[in-house]
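Regression test attached.
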Amino acid sequence: MKKLSIILVAVGISCFFLISHALAQPKPIKLGTAIPTSTVIGQEMEKAMRLAIKELNKAGGALGRPIELVVVDDEMKPEKGAAAIEKLATLDKVDIFIGGMASGVHMAQIPILRKYKPVTVWLGAASHKCEQALEGCDWYFHLHTWDYEQGAQQRLGWEDISKKQSGMKIEKNFFAYEEGGFGAASFEAIKSVWMGEYKIVGESFKSAQVGGGDYRTLLRHAKDWKPDAFHWIGYEADAMPIMEQAKEINFSPPVFVGAPPMWPPKFAKEPLANAVCFYTAWSHSLKAPASIRFLEAYTKEYGQPPINYVGPLSYSNVYIAVEGIKRAGTLEKEALISALEKTKYESPLGDVITFKPSKVIKHQGNISMKISQYQNGQEHILWPLNLATTQIMYPLPSWEKR
Amino acid sequence: MVKLSEKLRQPNYRIAVVSIFVGALLAYWKPYVLIEGIQRAGLYAAIALPMALLMGVVGIVNLAHGDFMMLGAYFAYWVSVYGGVDPLLAIVPALAFFFLFGCIVYLGPFKRILQAPELNQILLAFGLMIVLVQSANLLWTSRFIKISLPYVSASTTVGSLTFGTFEFVYVVAAVTVLVGLQLFLKKTTWGQAALAVGQNPRGAKVVGIDVDRTHLIIFSVSIAIIGAMGALFLARHSISPFIGFPFTLRAFCLIAMAGIGNLTAILWVSLVLGLSENFVLSFFGYAGWADLIYFVLIITVIMIKSRQRQVK
């Protein structure tokens, strides 16, 4: 009996210490994100976010509390994305929303976000339709450039590049865009910016991602039109087949531009990729100190470099949110919004990110688009000219010379 | 002359004559529509033929058909990457591997469901499709894979027209599969047994044919062919775990148009579909309409067939 009493007392004391220790631990600040972790791009985002959180926690977290990332897989499906926001807001009770990816998914999430009005620093979704749906949401901060901003930056970039390159013209532009929301909305936005001064023709195609993959007729239409620049807006799955089929029908426009969200692994090394231009917010060849630091840290952590710009963008996303919290000194909504408005973050993307009003919303990040080109197996920045690592390879070499 | 008019009463011959006429017109107007339409038709037919065999003999609507092709493509990818060989050479091991895989799938779930109502069979095939897709997603992730092979962009120039030549491999594949299956069905014991089982399973059983084993053989042959097609598909296309279903739908549509069990007609209706799609695609700005073609064709065929039944 005496023995049992001693054991019970010991257990009681242990429990007391364990509970009091747990209670004494500061409650973590929760960053909630809905990203497609079942896809490679979603996994890339999560890895970069976790790297940022690891670094921040190592430096003491924020407000004396550790930072915790709560991730829900949106499976790139609108209904799952909306449910993920509902879960993060009600069950997980996250302090701030970050991340996000596809515009189609975000359209379904916006009504839920509007219901709870959480402080949100959203990373993805480029469609202007999302922006229109967010009118009046002053608690919403957006990082990715809107599609029409991308169109304007691309136009400016090509104007600068063509001025620098003697004999280069970009008067006639053929746009091939995938028929889904991403391609069609992007083309619509680009057209609104380019039309008037430039000749623009666009034709849709069925992406290999959804069972398409035969681009030959489209490429023949482009070939017949003789454009100064051929642009395609599609997915990773379309990249190699488009090049192969362009070669097949001997279509070799002076400028060949691709705009998928990400390129296939090792695409740069393909002979067919030589002189292909593309748009990105970040490049492995970027010489900005923050970019070099990020690239080293990411490669050290995961044993390989990030696949594209979503890595540094996701990393920046976490830092911007946490630095906002630190600046506010509280998680109180108004203070946090006010602190985020003062953001001035030196991002690995090569930009010092601040928030300014865009066409509709009040808080839009100023991430700049880069025009890059694959040259002899390496990616090089062509524009902005101050970040350029080389000159454009112009015109596209003929297929026989590859 | 009389013989020709008699032959023209058969749908296959009628479709063939119309196809030849349309083909000649296209060759004159836009030759690339004809060439690329034939290439496209070859791909469709090569994919649809094994499904048609399965539906004709065993009577199963294999909704996972395209997903077996997807697995075949990944199999060829592995053989190519780890074996260091051209993915087209993976056709031979793929035939053997997928024949065995087909045996396992048949002896596992499918055998038990053959006597069940058709809805159960469809649900099983649908479930299998999800299992295959998600397994592939776990093994290879959802990221698209494309092997770069210089010969897939090989082309030739005739006059002012430059066109690709690699996709004729699909035409060769379709014809080979068709001829091979016809020979198998007509010249071998198992093939003749399969024909008998396809026409009347109960009667076949009465005369001593092992119906269950025939089903097993046909199921496995069908899976072996579509698995091997994966290697051909990989050479030209980007692959991911989700590429299969659109091709299952097209194959199903072709079988419905050709008539269940009519393997030769698959070739002709594929040609109709391939040429029609390319014809629509050739008009600038109308690419989106090409996808409607197979719906239009299937509705037209169903209407014609139901009218023919009413007349009878």
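Expected vs. actual: identical. The first helix of chain A runs from residue 2 to 24.
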